[in-house]
User: Fold CAP domain-containing protein from Spongiivirga citrea.
Amino acid sequence: MKSVFPQVAALFLLCFLSSCSVDSIENETDGLSISNTEHSNVKVVVSYTSIEKEIQERINQFRSNLGLSVLVLQDVITEKADEHSDTMIKDGAASHKNFGARATYIKNTLGADDVAENVGANYNSAQGVVTAWINSDSHRTVLEDDFTHIGISAKKDTNGKYYYTTIFSKL
Assistant:
């Protein structure tokens, strides 16, 4: 009978070494690096595109006009938003597919009290997608909630169609 111990030991070592790595997401656009909160040992550095920064600015302007606090970019949350935008691109449709798993990860990793998300597709600008969320009762409710942090992803598919994921969290 063959021993599986060497394979199990190698797999354990590989998992251990990869869990200690520092993730870095780079893209070709100018970016703003925002460090993650002290709630987590997970280290992620994200470069934000100009459209993602504009989405944050427009959401924060909307919130400021209502007397609400501005939302701070959070890289771990943005990483989850990026993953979901990739899924929507792969599926060819906007959705909240597997939102529960994203919310659980953010709650467990960052100690979040609450998590919500808005998604969109077929808008060519930050203004377009944010205006659509503001004009939708269910999306506006998320924008107006007492969240403190946000993760933002705006990605294009191969045809140039944008897919948007914004994940809101109360840390």
Notes: DSSP finds six helices and six strands in the chain. Residues 67-170 form a domain with the Pathogenesis-related Protein p14a fold (CATH 3.40.33.10). The CA atoms of residues 152 and 166 lie 5 Å apart.
